[in-house]
Amino acid sequence: MILARTVFCLGLGQLISWGISYYLIGVFGEAIAAEFGWGRDVVYGGFALALLVMGATSSLVGRLIDRHGGRKVMIAGSLLIAASCAGLALCRGLPGYFAASACLGLAMRLTLYDAAFAALVRIAGPAARGPIAQITLLGGLASSVFWPLGHVLAGHFGWRGALLVYAGIALATIPLHLATPNHRLEDAPTRNATPQPAPLAVSRRDLALAGGLFALITTLANFLNAAMSSQMIVILSGLGLALSASVWIATLRGIGQSLARLCEVLFGRRVPPVALNLFACALMPLAFVAGLFSGASSAAAMTFAFVYGAMNGLLTITRGTLPLVLFDHRTYGSFVGRLIAPSFIVSAAAPLVYAIVIARFGEAAALYVSIAIAVLAAFAAWLLALLCKGLERKSVPAFEA
Q1: Which of 148, 143, 138 is CA-nearest to residue 259?
Q2: Mean pLDDT computed over 363-382
Q3: Which residue, 126, 318, 306, is CA-closest to 222?
Q4: Band (192; pLDDT cuts 50, 70, 90)
Q5: How far is Cα 174 from Cα 67, in angstroms, rounded to an integer?
Q6: Which end of the chain has the least Cβ crowding within 10 Å, N or C?
Q7: Entry pTM
């Protein structure tokens, strides 16, 4: 059984780690570009490099957590986030900027949700669904907390001083990660243990189909997440909102994420992960449709930020819980690490792609691209739901026998 203290510490650690790493470029990107005279493609190219490093190291980090647990891995990630923020604050040109960005990419893979999910599954197996949803409650507020905080810090200390503050905050997450138990489910006492459900995908064909669809959905969702994390404020302000209004409206994304996740924690046991995944994917295109009217209506802008945040928040949970239904939990870290690696690599292009689209065709064009990607994700989620229905029917006779 996972202690409430562990879940709280991991959740608070996720809020801080996401805020000072993944959402960093959304706050300081424009200021960095202005000081160095770089184009957006160069600045967001650093974030793209970080995501590439996340993808390249994903499988390795998953294996490390399977073998050694999440505690040491996530503590190492906290140290690397601190080093990365300090490196960015002290850089004087492109070599230092890209070196710090690469370091940040490794740090994010060691600390963010996928590492925490693997750590929880190692401890609790399929019973980790509840804790996975619970730690995302606080983590979903990262942009709502750190986008305004970053702007306030930059206003007082400049972007370099703000990043040094971030480095200090990163070190404060080490005691939070120390709260993570290091045992494996099989090592825990088995008295009164309940039998674990068998995974749906067992044969090579089923693993390939389920794994491929899961990887596609995760890749598309992460691509949109990377794009919105770096460009949502830019899109809102480009459509006609004042910068200050864009920042505060963009924080509704984090509120939407956490409220949706709270609903999942309270009522999620009634909804299978496959159905929840389909629901979130089906509604996400509507968020971007609302975004098209942001320049004419602040209500539309708020709907865009909130609904996108809510659906993305649910997809973050299903990224952690779907594999518990589909695959063998004993190899969760390494197997899921391989499946999600393409999502980091492909999403590395998102900030640059969106920056180019916005520069050449405008902010509305970026939203049309988002609608197309979201519709494709919804189609893949529908196919996965159909596949799971077939696998469930196939497994019933074997279970009854």
Answers
A1: 138
A2: 96
A3: 318
A4: very low
A5: 20
A6: C
A7: 0.81
